[in-house]
Amino acid sequence: MGLVEREAVMSELRAALSDSAKGCGKVAVIRGGIASGKTALLRAFEEHAVAAGATLLRASGAPGEQSLRFGVIEQFLSGATTPPGATESLSHLAGLTTPQVGSEAPSSALSGTRAAHDLCVGLLELSRQGPLVITVDDHQFADSASLQVLTYLQHRIGTARVMLLLSQGTEPPSELVAEVLRQPYSRQFTLSPLSPEGVGQLLAQRLDSSVAVQQAPGSYAVTGGNPLLTHALIDDSLAPDQEAAAGAAVEPVAGQAFTRAVLAILRRGGPQLLRTARAVAVLGEFAAPALLARFLDVRPSVVGGALETLELAGLTTDAQFRYHGTRTAVLDELTPEERSALNRRAAELLHHDGVAPSDVVGYLLAAGEADEPWAARVLHAAADQALAHAEQALAGGKVAEAVQYLEFASRSCGDEHKRAMLTARLAWVQWTISPAAATRHHGPLQTALEKELLSSREVMRLVRSLAWHGRPEEAVRALQSLGSLPEGDGSRDPAERRLTRQWLARWYPQIFAQVERHAAMAEPMSSPGPVRRPHPAVLPRGTANVPAVDGPEQVLQRARVRETPLASVLSALHELLAAERFERAMYWCNELLQKAEGQHAAAWRGVLLDTRAAVSLRLGDLADAERDASSALTALSARSWGVAIGSPLSHAIHAATMRGHFDRAEAFLHQMIPQSMMDTRYGLQYRTARGHFHLATDRPHAALEDFEAVGDLVVKWKLDHPMTLPWRGDLAQALVRVGQTDRARELIKDQLRMIGPDSTRMRGISLGILASVSDLKQRLPLLGEVVDLLQAGGDRYQLAQAFVELGQVWQILGKLDRAQLIRRRALQLAKSCHAEQLSHQLLATREPLNSEPATSQWEDAEGMAVLSEAERRVAALAALGRTNREIGRKLHITVSTVEQHLTRVYRKLNIKRRADLPVGLPADIADIA
């Protein structure tokens, strides 16, 4: 591998070698920054010298070997090209061998000047046998005895066949070099860092040429042209786990090899360079020569030299690391104790320099402790600023940073009331990331509540968090203690109280029942703004008189992640669900999910995914429902879900059951759940889903047990409304399976009376259950109404079930063509819902036709165009199995008109009978129908 941008120096060194071989001795000095390529250049020249027939004596200086007498000389003598006779002679002169018996041992006087002189003479004698090349890498670390030999040698080198080549760093010249450079036969070369083009050439030696061109600018920016760092980047790029990514990357890949190279450079530079680099890493943007000198307690000149060395090594520019990974590598090597001490030192210096507390606080946070008197004053001032920084971080979506500031502010605040407020804010923010993480603040907040340090809003948030995590007794105690808060401190918050009251009434009825009559939960006498009565299905019985200030869409429109209570958002979404406004609920779930994901609000994401699963279930989108419910379960840990885990679990179980994926449904049922969940509405949802699983897997008695338990609790907790928990319909289905048809009929009639005429989907489902327990004569008109309602309600799965029932009735009545037409429609809906089991059942029971239906033109745009609007409506209803009389009543036209329309439809579509009408109706025609 060739040298890069060192060819000119190499050429002059070769010329010097040629001159020295002719009896014109030369001395050359190579200077350069750490890892600038000095050693590589020396080794390349040494290879050339040996190839040219010269005797090579080579050595390298090391800080740890400076005390070894004649250590460099000893390295000379161990070289492969040193003649054996010369080795023995020089070793004896240097006192490196035991003298033979009878020979004179070197005296102590010879260990000084005389020994150095004799060794110099010995080296000159060696040069008479042929050209001699002596190289000493990092000669500044050579022992003093060896340096004395080299000093004598350079005085006598002028007419000898000797070339002396020394290398050193950027430190001031040693006495030897200073003296050498005054001689006419000497020359000094300074190796600069590689240029951007040179870095590109180095990359091209080991990487694909196109990759080298792309990565050269970035590599130069990271390394500053240091060859060692550049080679380390290449090594990281070629690592097995990085090679594929690096091949397509425009920027270089910095990994373990780069980190090792950085640390190697710093260790080569000695302790002071390493200390300076650590100081630069800790001080960051505040690193400046004057502050660094005070930080390290050294003279400014020492810092200046170290900064120059770091810059020449390609690590820094203007006292800042070129690459953030370099700073990370330096800091990661520190022990926690070392890092803490350095950050405390930085905080102290910056404070005494008058730096703002907002800048000092980061160092105190990193130090983890600050016991000094000055730190107490800084912390007190920083607590206020930390809260402001936290709010700014939240506004920018930097939640982890906000939590860090709030934790610091809470720890450092000396005022007990203010600390309680900061802890409450911290718990509120952490809840949006991980509700489980917020539980560690429950204890301090409950203590603050006992001392009357929390406002009404903070208490209500604590109550909701305690309820969420299945701690009802503590939630009740918190609510009961709320009555002791002073009235005139502005802490009363009617909106938060109203929200908490509705939240508990809906999801935690046992807690609500215990505090229902407590003064702390009483509704305020008045509230600002327009008052609006909620949908009757939103709140359970006993809370219907609770006013809501805003409609659900107004609440959702103003919702802000981490500012608006999630309980308020969820209540508004469930109000839309209860009102069967599924499209709007889906729209808001998607809108708010996008905001939650952009701000890393895991709790919001989990709850919204779960709610979207609930919407998909009501629309019959089973695959979407199961996917979203599963995603909700992974968005938060089971501990973070608390008792609310019953909601996504119930949706996942229900969706998997409806699809016929019983193994997956059973896997969800085997997940661990908190026991306290069964005392909440989430437990009712879970029992209902489990009951439907039992019913689908032919265990009607187990289903009966679940549905009856749900009914008992619903009545006991005053949650009895079929728009939210239609337990009567569920129980009726189980009763039919065990032969109790009369009781089932009474239950479903009760449910229909409670629903009233306003609902479409739930009324359609309930009528479908009633049809299943009615005689054949009543069943046909009931199922016709069910189809109408479910088409309007948008639930494709329930509509598919209704068509299955309708097809069976026509089958019994002997209308086989019509039955098969209806089953074809049911099959299409089942497939669109991903209801695999229902699809398989329909395919298995399909009756063969006497002849295949004619190919329809309906399914292309040109075929659609041939029908008038009136013909489309009639055809749509006929395809659904309606009689001509029923179509006439539906469209307010005569039976004769219906017949005329159908005749034209058959002619235009080239079909002969009603059974040939296509099942795949476009959405707009299905809506019209």
UniProtKB/TrEMBL annotation:
Domain HTH luxR-type: 860-925
Pfam annotation, one family: GerE
GO molecular function: DNA binding
Keywords, in A-Z order: DNA-binding, Transcription, Transcription regulation
Keyword Magnesium found: no
GO biological process: regulation of DNA-templated transcription
InterPro entries from the UniProt entry: AAA_16, Sig_transdc_resp-reg_C-effctor, TPR-like_helical_dom_sf, Tscrpt_reg_LuxR_C, WH-like_DNA-bd_sf
Superkingdom classification of source: Bacteria
PROSITE patterns assigned: HTH_LUXR_1, HTH_LUXR_2
SUPFAM superfamilies named among the record's database cross-references: C-terminal effector domain of the bipartite response regulators, TPR-like
Keyword Transcription included in the entry's annotation: yes
PANTHER family: DNA-BINDING TRANSCRIPTIONAL ACTIVATOR DEVR_DOSR
Name of the protein this chain belongs to: Putative LuxR family transcriptional regulator
